[in-house]
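Reviewers asked in the last cycle whether our approach scales beyond single polypeptides. To address this, we selected a multi-component target totalling 1085 residues and predicted its structure end to end. The input consisted of the following lines:
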Amino acid sequence: MRWLRERSKVQLAAVAAAVLLLLALLPPFIGVYQTQLLTYGLIAAIAALGFNLLLGYTGLLSFGHSAFFGIGAYTVAFLARDAGIHSMELYILLGLPISALLSALFGYISVRHTRIFFGILTLALSQVLYSLAYKLFWVTGGSDGLRVPRPTLLAGLVSFSGPGSFLRFVNSYYYYVLAVFAVCVVVMWVIVHSPFGKALQAIRDNEVRAAFLGLRISRFRWVAFLISGTFTSLAGILWVPLNGLTTPEILYWPFSGEIVFTALLGGFRNFSGPIVGGIVFTYLKTYAVATTEYWQLLLGVVLVMLILVLPTGIVGAVSRLADRLKAKGKS
Amino acid sequence: MSILVIQILNSLFYASVLFLIAAGLSLIFGVMRIVNMAHGTLYAVGAYVTAWLMGKAIALGVPLGWLFLLLPVGAGVVALAGFVIEPLLLRPFYRRAEEYQLLVTFGLLLILEDVIRFLWGGMPITADTLQDVVPIMHIGGLVYPGYNLVVIGIGALAAIGLWAGIYRTKFGVMLRATSQDRRMASALGINVGLVYMSAFAIGCFMAGLGGAIIVPSQAAVLGMGVDALILAFVVVVIGGLGSLQGALVGALIVSFVRTAGIQFFPEIELAVLYLIAAIVLLIKPTGLFGNA
Amino acid sequence: MDKPNTVDRRKFLSALGVTVGGVGVAGASLIAPQVVKAATEPAKGKIPDTPYKTGHMTFLTGPAAVLGDPSLKGHIMAAEEINAQGGLLGKRKIETITADEAAGTDANVKELRRMKLEGKIDLFTGVISSGNTPALGPVAEELSLLTMFVDGCTDFLFDVAVPNPKYTFRLTNIQSADGITAAIGAAQAWPQTRKIAHLHPDYSYGRNASEHFTLAIERLLPGTQVVSESWPKLGTTDFTSHITKILSSEPDLLFTSVWGGDYVAWYKQALRYGLFDKMKVATTLAFGVAPHALGKDHPEGVLAGVHSNYHFTYPGGDRWPINKSFVQRYFKRWNEYPNFQSEGSYVTLHMLKAAIERANKLMGGWPDDEMIIGQLEGMGFDTPSGYLYIRPDNHQGYKDAVTGFSKNNPEYPFPTWDQNRIITIPIRNITAPANWPKPGKGHNESTAAANWIKTTWPKSVG
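The resulting structure, written as structure tokens, was:
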């Protein structure tokens, strides 16, 4: 945080714009496979960004964020199957309020507690959703899951069918997700730098003092939870068309573990940490699975080493390195 | 009637194993404030080690009755692993936020799952010879494996032993003191590091023992640990993290509800457990016997 | 629905073509449209010598590795055999990259795309879970990637997920045949059955098996009733309460589709509860795992299903030399016996080889995917399990369904089939014919096969 605060806002906007431009120019150079993998990465980044509002800024570790990713994904699947809706914009417009409702409900229950009890509560609630998705075979397709055909983009202006449609879809969808991603980043940036965001951090750092200052702590946590869950469910909404199918796996607790892993990998004390983490984790898991049948071992070792050696995550380590170099340059 | 008796015995049998796993999980949390995600996998290690040793022993022609001695040996191996894991992986994190400790054990879970597969391969390993050492019982017109009573007995003994160890020995006083206030315990001259290491090893021993006693009646299969972790979690959530009574009552509730679910509502066998956990959390978030 | 007419059960079973005793020659009941002869002539035209890349996805980790391990072994053995002859068309050596199906459906979709777009594979094969083929089939189609699924046999794949396949094929028998085969086996062996208990893993496979078994048994043995149902979660190893519940309902027959490590744990517990003395037991997958995963303590006389596909002891002896030699070579290579997955993935590569050779003979040079697909559609092939036919309309492999009764044979360190009681059923008699309406097209049954049974099967009497 500190290193970012020191820079002027103009400088920061310039860096962000440059990164965005770079991301926008990438697809022709990296080919269709990397483009779609990067899309997955951006989606994971949105999920982690939402998650980190709780962990990084509010100091609450949720071990049940799979619930929100999953509710986004399943809402889209139901809209496609039962309402015959095939427009991405409608998915988002209808999906977000439903997800927000669930986030509000789960948040209301969970924020009465902190620390490990908060984590377990969120875990248990997400597992209730998991078992429902798994058990209500005739509604959710059980372990088979639900298929979601490719939606149209931009209110039906861009649609995909016929030969070669997959390639066209990957390219268009990348830019679609990139745009949503950019909006998400800006919104989240505004949130954490607003008085509301500052209050969350004050509560995180010293709950007693914040209470003395007259902050209604549980109300703040609840709103943070609501925003966090809704962000993560937006990631779920965006994820389904790319994957083509949703199964109860994305509601199961190991998926929550992956979201936590993601935030930690990038560094949850930095605003950009979860973004970097989301993209890097997507690549890490994909290539771990591709290179060795002992991919679980590989991920486990990376996770443990990361916590031992890079406790502030990738962004934390890089920024510290940069600070040190700067200090040397000055002296 | 005999069906009822057998279902009660089945529930007690299942509760014994669940208690062993959950009590270890709870003990580790109570003393060290760590939720050990790798706990189920340590239970699986106990099962694999025991089944493997038993296969070796039978091949060597060891008299069958002696195989019972392998149960504590299997559990002991897991305890030894605990003695290695605690100083190596957990100790560096005591001063850091508890999120990190949770994640380290999650990493350990991933690692151990693959280590098991590397050492023992993908085929189930069985050790049911031991089951046949104990005679079959007759209840009404039905038969019941006597070995299950041995498991229930071990579960009961473990509960009593753990209770006595914590509430009736000097070590138990140190354990409870450390769990109440680490700094104060340290100031009173308690070797906190040693207490932590012992608590973790005892927790591992319990999980390993759970695996050791269950493997003769089932089989050691990949993925058994993750499955067990979830159930143990439900147990401690209901009973209260860090509470020994909670683990016992939670294990009994989960087993009896599960049996009732299987008997009367087969469709919702799985969901009913999570639902109970969620309801308990809503009413008393620290669990029936927990305190925040 | 019309009221089903009734027929005499014995006549019904014989109309279904059920053969007991394993005397029927494999595949004899099908009229072979195009039986492939082994090609010995050299390839025509110029063949590149670049490797032919295959991607094999199967369970390398987790509880289902008991099925994944044999699947990969069958694939590797076939690749080695083909490469020993110089490769496909004598030139292109088969290279294999593997992927772990246990990484989850989401990761599997990503991995399939990676294999095609980055690994540049020519063929995608393997896959065991019926939860994965409906996810991967559409992806393979959109990537225009030649795909030969070994298993993942759900009807849902070609009924709903990929109703008009172009690039996607599947070799093992369709899932609905599994429950129906078990029902026919049970009705044939134990016609006095009145009360039936069910025990199934709680996911789509268990539901499919239960539904189709029930549909068939209601017609084969009218008046039977379901007295108990249990749905343990997949991966359950404690079955004591389920077993007690089953015992308490005092059924004549237990039908179960529990498989793999779960089945091993289940039968060991059931044995100690005396379950096998109190009732008959019919299974769909007891012998589906690698044979050495089961012990000699497995009770005899259980209807031990193999996913209605293949057991290495059938066709036995010298009656079907292809099988005899396959089993011998497999044992020599891996020091164990094959299961139906081994056979399926072994056949996959040899069938591909045959299709490529035939396309080459017609046109010369290396055939493109369209031509290979043209040859695979409607292809008939002699495999270790018997005659296999790829139906052109849905790209699904069909072979006569087979099941048998467990027996301890001194030759093997694990239970095998009673060679005098092997049951074979012509597949066309137990599956929906080509172009039967699919779910959502005029009916809302879960599968085309379910609708077909309800519409066409009579009820038997006597």
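Residues 113 and 230 of chain B are 15 Å apart (CA to CA). We regard this as preliminary and will revisit it once experimental data from Aim 1 are available.
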